[in-house]
Specification:
This protein is an alpha/beta fold. The chain has a single domain, classed as 2-enoyl-CoA Hydratase, Chain A, domain 1 (Alpha-Beta Complex). A six-stranded mixed sheet has the order 1-2-3-5-7-10, sandwiched between helices. It has a four-stranded mixed sheet with strand order 4-6-8-9. Strand 2, helix 1 and strand 3 form a beta-alpha-beta unit. The longest helix is centred in the first third of the chain and has 19 residues. InterPro entries: ClpP/crotonase-like_dom_sf, Enoyl-CoA_hyd/isom_CS, Enoyl-CoA_hydra/iso. It comes from Luteibacter rhizovicinus DSM 16549.
Length: 251
């Protein structure tokens, strides 16, 4: 489900390895959060979050999620928010090595990292929740606005837009592009350069710069709006999600 790969200089790569497309079920979400939280105590000075070549993460495992009752769906989203909060509040720098397609939950997770490097080419990224019948909660919208600005975030979120790597780079949704084979290597190089800086000054400045993000995401206990769960079980959303699952099963 996860591979923990050490690199020189105290850099830990946490690679998602849940076949076939690194879709987030509750087990992957919990494992990833635990790995991120425990990494500093295991000697990590920086974290690279990666996926498979061609597919960073396909987002939430919708076929698994729609089998859950209301309590189970709420449990999943609380765990997913806790994962995002753990990345936001990480005491060490994090970089998302977006190794391929990254729709929905995959894109969301990347927002909370310090830096994003994406594979260029035929790969897309975006918060396409609206296209599959889901609204985007305000705390996630906040994280998106923080990266690309208010108006750009509004246009992308309301349309549920997926953009290719080059456009994502142009609008600042990702910071850098590399070949799919070199995304992780570039992420490690970026992290190596950050860790060469005087550590106290770098970490203190980082904490100040990310204080707005931590203020929202540092404690996710009551962050999930119950209305989001109501929306999830609405007829419109359930119809779109079940049609999506049917298409996936027919492939």
């Amino acid at each position: 489900m996860l591979d923990i790969l050490p690199h020189d200089g105290g850099i830990h790569e946490i690679r998602m390895a849940r076949a076939p497309v690194n879709a987030f079920d509750i087990h992957l979400v919990r494992a990833l959060r635990e790995a991120i939280v425990e990494a500093p105590s295991n000697g990590a000075r920086g974290i690279v979050l990666s996926g498979a070549q061609g597919m960073f993460s396909a987002g939430v495992d919708v076929p698994a999620l729609i089998q859950r009752d209301r309590a189970g769906v709420q449990e999943f989203w609380n765990e997913f928010f806790a994962l995002c909060g753990a990345i936001a509040a990480s005491s060490v720098p994090t970089v998302a090595a977006v190794t391929g397609h990254s729709p929905a939950g995959g894109a969301v997770v990347s927002l909370f990292c310090d830096y994003r490097i994406m594979a260029h080419g035929p790969y897309k990224i975006g918060l396409n929740e609206v296209q599959v019948g889901l609204s985007v909660p305000e705390p996630i919208q906040f994280a998106m606005r923080r990266i690309v600005g208010n108006y750009r975030a509004e246009r992308l979120l309301v349309a549920g837009a997926m953009v290719d790597a080059e456009q994502a780079h142009a609008i600042g949704l990702v910071d850098e592009l590399a070949t799919v084979e070199q995304v992780v290597q570039r992420a490690v190089i970026w992290m190596t350069d950050i860790l060469k800086l005087p550590p106290k000054a770098m970490l203190r400045t980082r904490a100040i710069a990310r204080a707005d993000l931590v203020a929202v995401w540092g404690d996710t206990t009551d962050l999930l709006d119950p209305g989001f769960i109501d929306d999830f079980f609405a007829d419109e959303t359930q119809g779109v999600l079940r049609a999506l699952v049917a298409r996936l099963k027919s492939r």
